[in-house]
Amino acid sequence: MNGTDLLVLGVILAGATVYFKFDTWKELIFSNDDDISASQGGSNDIVQMMVDNDKNYLVLYASQTGTAEDYAKRFAKELKSKFALNVLCQDVENVNLENLHDLPSNIIVSFFVSTYGEGDFPDGAAMFEQFLSSAHLPNLNFTIFGLGNYTYEFFSMASEKTLKMLLEAGATLIGNLRSGDDGKGTTEEDYLAWKEQTLEALHDYINLSEASTGFKSSFKLSFVDEISNDTYLGELTSDYLPNHNSAPSTVDAKHPYVAPITQSKELFKSVGRYCIHSQFDISNTSIKYETGDHLAIWPFNANEKVDQFLSTFALQPDKIFDLESLDATMEPPFPCPTTIEAAVKYYLEITGPVSRECLSVLSEFAPVEIKEYVIQLSKDKDAFAKEITDKQFNLADALLYLSQGKPWSQVPWECLVEALTIITPRYYSISSSSNADPNSIHVTSIVECNTNKYTDSLTLGVTTNLLRNISLNINDPQSTKIMPVQYDIMGPRNLYGGNKLPIHIRHSTFKLPADPSVPIIMIGPGTGVAPFRGFVRDRVHSVETGKCNNMGKMMLFYGCRDENDFLYQNEWPEYSSKLDENFEMIVALSRVSDKKCYVQHKLKEYGQQVMALLNQGAHVYVCGDAGRMAKDVQHTICEMISQDKGISIDDANEMIKAIKVSGRYQEDIW
Ligand code: FAD
Questions:
Q1: pTM of the prediction?
Q2: Hey, whose CA ends up nearest to atom 45 of ligand 1?
Q3: Residue 467, ligand 1, Cβ within 6 A
Q4: What is the pLDDT of residue 469?
Q5: Is the CB of 444 under 6 A from ligand 1?
């Protein structure tokens, strides 16, 4: 037996609690010709990581905004807690993918792949895509779950590409690929359905017998007596702890910059609906953005929601705790040590829709008199939808509703930490121009504040209400009282004093053509106009600075309800006067007459002009509502092409697909 064999034996013994169809782990591993050989070394060597940490199952994720990561971790956790598998869960960005060649076939790999933009892989998964395109993986057995949005032409395309490339590499699919659809809001139920089928299919490969159904924490919880300079009170990274106290030198998704909002104003004139224009100052920083990029804003929860959550679980807000991972390959989900209040306010997502799986985890600790009912409810998709989802309850609302107001004081804090998702940044299409406004980033956000038709209360968006609170504070601090909820806008240790929020840039492919003489057609109703304000400011800047003598025509189709929600109404005439006949703005007002008029109707009305520009090679940009608008606009353009070219609708659709692939038809929809 050589050194490698000994390492393998270590894995074998550690995996003895797992009941495989093969008699023993030993038989299973040595039944393959391909031993685990941890030859490559290095901290990102998957095989080495598995050997070192006694792992026997691999979960890999390619995530853009954190959703794929969240589902991957949940799946890994369930395999671990229910079936006693030792799961390694990693971002494809952080591992040496070449090691997949060395993985023995009994180590099953579950992939979670999200799609971004026009069927693209997430930013961090470029190497993953490249690796798969030439991989040879005949020993690999895998499952795959995709995440996407059906309103995009290339729904969940990255997961489909992954599947295709893996099959071409000789790997074997276990179960089926299924994708969660964010567009229909069914990602959670799609995942649960996929999980059920996949676990069943896995039975043919490994004998998954339930080892335990109770909650087992992945962390050792300890309490700390006093707050020190190393205690996180809501800071997102150590860069902002008192002893460090200097902004991160590199700003990215892992190191946000706490930026001052220097100007903010309400754009709507209507009562009861709000849209906030905010300007983030990035002067004296290393932050660079390009017109058309996205700004990520890191929100935190409103005081009332935090209080409701704390009282629902009878938690003591001031308690300082630390989490030590019981698994060397896992890190605590947020910075520690911290206080319970800071975790609830700054790190946990507490207000969004409740997941059935979360209720299932918490059901173990439900007040005894409702426990059976809660367990049944968490298993019944339809009853859960009717009782919880349709009522737009957040977790605290739902649990208090089920227990008729009685606190759920038996839920362990570690269980909440693991059952809830981490608060993630929200993205906004930047509405400034990097050329005209290099020192500030503008965003245009509609405030999410909807009356819940079941409970008559307000269902609020976290970030947009926070931006409104800051806007009111900048313009008239007294007026913040009118907010339906209040935010602690000074932030942890007053870090956000001066109206600051953590941000980072996400680069996008939604860009003006490099050649300014190329005409462009922009379609952006509502806040979809945001990036087009940036595009127009960019071209105005080119004209003003004499950088462009041969500007292509710009047509902007904008839509809103009426004059009261006409965004940046005062600015457009100024841009028009500077760009002359090169800029034309066409406005569709949907609520000023009996006949509703939307951007697609205006596109049709201006069909001849639009087609003339398209025939000159114009680029088309669509931004805003992914629900219907983007599809209606595409359908209209498709009809126009079909008529103009005398071809069938199907052929016109194929043409649009080809134009999309070439980057001449781009969408920035959400
Ligand atoms: P969240 O807290 O995320 O809530 C989202 C929605 O769920 C809200 O409508 C909220 O009312 C509702 N909700 C909350 N709790 C529940 C519950 N328990 N049950 C059911 N529903 C609930 N938006 C813009 O305004 N302008 C832009 O320029 C813009 N650009 C974007 C660009 C990209 C690439 C993407 C992906 C999105 C963009 N968005 C934009 C949308 C933006 O990212 C946010 O999703 C939006 O502002 C809402 O964020 P929030 O934190 O306020 O709401």
A1: 0.91
A2: 426
A3: no
A4: 98
A5: yes
